[in-house]
Design goal:
By secondary structure, this protein is of the alpha+beta class. It has one domain: Nuclear Transport Factor 2, Chain: A. 28% of the residues lie in helices and 47% in strands. The chain has a 6-stranded mixed beta sheet with strand order 2-1-6-5-4-3. Helix 1 runs antiparallel to helix 2. The termini are far apart. 9% of the residues are buried.
């Protein structure tokens, strides 16, 4: 008989793992390893994605619409045992129009059972810079 010592990460540990993987360019791995299959994702504009299939469609739309020119992340900023926030800064180029935009975004995450169960994004976009 085998016994396994499963260590469930707390919110701060999950946040640190997200930052580590983000900085290594492992975007898909973040979703595969750290997101709950029932993830709830809420954008500041009201767009809601429920579950991994909808989240995957949202990210496919993002990458087909925008080219990321630069991006940085700060955090994690833990809040209790089950939440953390990250601050993202990015510069993007709209693929169709060529407009370049800068954006700072606060992402608040809730965790459950060692995975990200919910993410909410708060942001303002700047005026095109080029």
């Amino acid at each position: 008989m085998y016994t396994y010592n499963l260590v469930v990460m707390n919110a701060h540990q999950i946040g640190a793992k997200v930052v580590e993987m983000f900085e290594a360019g492992k975007m898909q791995e973040i979703q595969d390893e750290l997101y709950s299959p029932e993830i709830l994702s809420v954008e500041a504009d009201g767009m809601v994605s429920k579950g991994r299939a909808e989240l995957d469609k949202k990210y496919e739309w993002w990458t087909s619409t925008f080219e990321t020119l630069s991006e940085q992340v700060k955090g994690p900023f833990p809040h209790g045992e089950d939440q953390f926030a990250l601050i993202f800064s990015m510069k993007t180029k709209h693929r169709e129009s060529g407009a370049i935009d800068t954006m700072d975004e606060v992402a608040v995450y809730k965790t459950a059972d060692g995975r990200i169960a919910e993410e909410r994004f708060f942001y303002l976009t700047g005026a095109p810079t080029e």
